[in-house]
Amino acid sequence: MLVSDFDYRLPERLIAQAPLADRSASRMLRLERKTGRLEDRRFRDFPDLLRAGDLVVFNNTRVFPARLYGRRSGSRAQPLSPQNPASKGFLQGRVEVLLTKQVSMEPNEWECLVKPGRKVGIGERLFFGDSTQDRVGRTLSSAQLAAQVISRGTFGERLIRFDAVPNFFERVERLGHVPLPPYISRDDEPEDRERYQTVYARERGSTAAPTAGLHFTAEILEGMRAKGIETTELTLHVGLGTFQPVRADTVEEHKLHSERFAISEQTAEQINRALDQRRRVIAVGTTTVRTLEFAARNTGRVSPGSGEADLFIYPGFDFRVVGGMLTNFHLPQSTLLMLVCAFAGKEHAMSAYRHAVSNDYRFYSYGDCMLVE
Fold this sequence. Notes:
QueA-like; 2 domains
């Protein structure tokens, strides 16, 4: 299966650069996957389109400001300390680090993407929160976070180890930037900290938002409860597995990075009960779809627990849990678009995308959405 089969033309003007003032004001394209019928709706209609007995599953992961800007050094220096501060002459070029997954807490090690990728080698020291210096270049205070490159992968991937500090995440919250995707051609702004986050986000750990959930408001959730719609939550921390580009020519060659997930016993029980009663399980977002299908891949029933999910879903996949999906519009030739094509049928999904382009839907993270059922 060729990756190029999942391409489509998108005018740049349709890429949403900022969120709407009202989350629930987004447009929603409804797609019947059996017939391919399309219907233009508003997201506010979502509760009314649900059936009695539907179970809606959310991903409650929380985005943290995972993009850090700092300076790098070619030296294999000792950890930063008052006795070993970073001086003006010691620091070199600017570096951008996107933290994608914490692989250990002690020592504090992270998988990340770095820019410029080719220049940052193993053993290099990275400093975040530039030191304060006087007029003659003497260091008055040291950087707030420092790390060393432990190993390197391809395409800018690195493993780094942070020096031990108290309140690590408090420092990241203070120094970090909201990791807006590269197709949003502006710097992050203070309001992105709230808007690039679902209203039900709880479990910190994502590098990117599960964007299908960005449309929900407290009022929409209350409307679902008023209709008696059952809901539940799981956690999948969005990392490289969700947004890494496909660099292979054929779909089957691509290998997905794993991402951390957790499903509680209560959530597994709710989902399995819905399946036993032949009620629909509606997944909010592709991350929820992958987590559910990963957890049920062996038996067809969702098992509680936590671990690393690396399920790559593309056309031909046999869905065992999900009966409906709310999703945003995704990048051409991306694994997310392949998942949508697997669930909706490739011809129906690509026809829906062409319809969305022709009718000026807003695309990607801050854009409109599609309900596939």
